[in-house]
Amino acid sequence: MNSLRRDLKGAYTIWYRDVLRFLRDRTRVITSLAQPLLFLFVFGGGLAPAMSGLGGGNLSFTEFMFPGILGMTVLFTSIFSAVSIVWDREFGFLKEVMVAPVSRAAVALGKVAGGSTVAMFQALIVLVLAPLIGIKLTLDQLLILVGLMLLLAAVMTSFGILIAARQRTMEGFQMIMQFLLMPMFFLSGALFPLRSVPLWMTWLNRIDPVTYGVDPLRQVALRASVPAESLRALSLHPIATDIVIMVAIGVIFIIPAVWLFSKQD
Fold it and tell me: Could you tell me where the DSSP H helices lie in the chain?
């Protein structure tokens, strides 16, 4: 029992450290809006005329993009939260954590919880933009969106830790992440409908974990703004199916991530 209590306290401490660093970095909080604003109002505004037929004409391109931008925020923040593992290894902090009387699995789970919470906070900041682009959100929708963003964040933070656990340099981690992040984002359907696309893209989309995060975010976020028939035409799977697949992918990522983290020197 004492060991469990010690591990829980250790995981909480790691989580609290990550959240506190985010909340104290006001520049990071403010600039987290820069990329979503760029995509929504520059990219979205520029392509809006060419994408005017979305949802049978009932949906603007900016509205269509918004859930994808939420997913993008969660994806990038979650993955790069794992950068701190490599950073801490380079500067010696991780070595001090590893010799603490806490299981390494608890440390890894604390990092997953911390990265997931920070990613959700950043996505909540972006969520404030919803009324500016004409998306109506009820309290029920907000609560469901928070849960979905937290689940996606946990999945992608686990993936980031899985990659970071054996990386020795920041440069190596960033090269791998840049190679994976942009394809995962673009193939998820965040920026364009995944209907009538080539077969190879369909298969890549099916194995992209971000797909199962963006799809339910879009269904929930646009529920009160778009006719049900139009929304069904843009959806890939029932929300329950997306959630089950995300949970399964999360388990597939987190088990080897914790194991690899526990095997560090």
Answer: 2-24, 26-31, 34-37, 44-47, 61-81, 83-90, 93-98, 104-127, 139-164, 170-186, 199-207, 211-221, 228-234, 239-262
Sort 263 into a burial class: Cβ within 10 Å, 0-12 / 13-18 / 19+: exposed
The tens digit of pLDDT for each residue in 230-263 reads 778 778 888 999 999 999 998 898 888 777 766 6
Average pLDDT of every residue of the chain: 79
Q: 89, 208 in Cβ contact below 8 A? A: no
Between CA 131 and CA 146 the distance in angstroms is 17
Check: pTM over 0.90? Answer yes or no: no
Three-class SS state of 25: coil
The residue ranges of every structural domain in the chain are: 2-262
Average pLDDT over residues 206-228: 86
- Give me the residue label for tokens 């339910």: 216
Residue with tokens 């829980």: 8
**What is the pLDDT, as a whole number, of residue 232?**
80
Instruction: Write down the pLDDT at residue 52.
Output: 60
CB 87 within 8 A of CB 163: no
How many Cβ atoms from other residues are within 10 Å of residue 42's Cβ?
10
- Identify which of 118, 160, 147, 150 has the alpha carbon closest to the alpha carbon of residue 29: 118
Nearest CA among 117, 111, 118, 119 for reference residue 94 = 111
Residue written as token pair 């673009």: 186
Q: Per-residue pLDDT averaged across 195-222, rounded?
A: 86
d(CA 265, CA 256): 16
